[in-house]
Write a sequence for this structure.
């Protein structure tokens, strides 16, 4: 995009238009994550999991644990469902419709943020990158539309990609439990 704008001779107009993006924390975080990954080390410092009871991917009750980033979520879920604690909350038949065990996992990069997980930061950065591309298009009176933040950044929206349920691991379970 930068090269095309330069070829059109619109560098000054673009510099004026992109001023609001210069120190954007989300774009800077994406660039930093890219540089750390390419030039230094693996980026994940660890993860936080909420492992426990979910209803239709919504969190109900869980343990909150810090887990190394390279322990598979499926392994954690298998461990929990077989544990005495896991056997305490649900019957084997999962008679409560929609209730099953799951793992909500969030990864962190301490160098970038100790508060914001990687998925949220990446989604924010992607939205801001789209905003920057839209600003470049407006230089040429082309409207690209807007990506609203809310569907991508709500807890339910994030849960679609960060919660692993028993039925995700074995899609036949809802039938076995009599849900379908």
């Amino acid at each position: 995009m930068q090269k095309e704008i330069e070829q059109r001779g619109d560098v000054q107009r673009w510099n004026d238009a992109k001023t609001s993006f210069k120190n954007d924390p989300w774009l800077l975080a994406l660039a930093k994550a890219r540089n750390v990954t390419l030039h230094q080390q693996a980026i994940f410092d660890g993860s936080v999991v909420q492992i426990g009871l979910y209803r239709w991917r919504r969190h109900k009750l869980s343990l909150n644990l810090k887990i190394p980033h390279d322990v598979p979520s499926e392994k954690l879920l298998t461990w929990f469902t077989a544990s005495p604690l896991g056997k305490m909350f649900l019957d084997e038949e999962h008679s409560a419709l929609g209730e099953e065990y799951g793992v909500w996992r969030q990864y962190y990069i301490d160098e970038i943020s100790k508060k914001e997980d990687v998925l949220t930061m990446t989604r924010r950065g992607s939205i801001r990158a789209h905003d920057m591309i839209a600003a470049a298009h407006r230089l040429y009176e082309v409207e690209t539309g807007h990506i609203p933040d809310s569907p991508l950044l709500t807890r339910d929206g994030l849960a679609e990609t960060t919660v692993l349920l028993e039925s995700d691991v074995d899609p036949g379970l809802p039938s076995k439990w009599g849900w379908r």
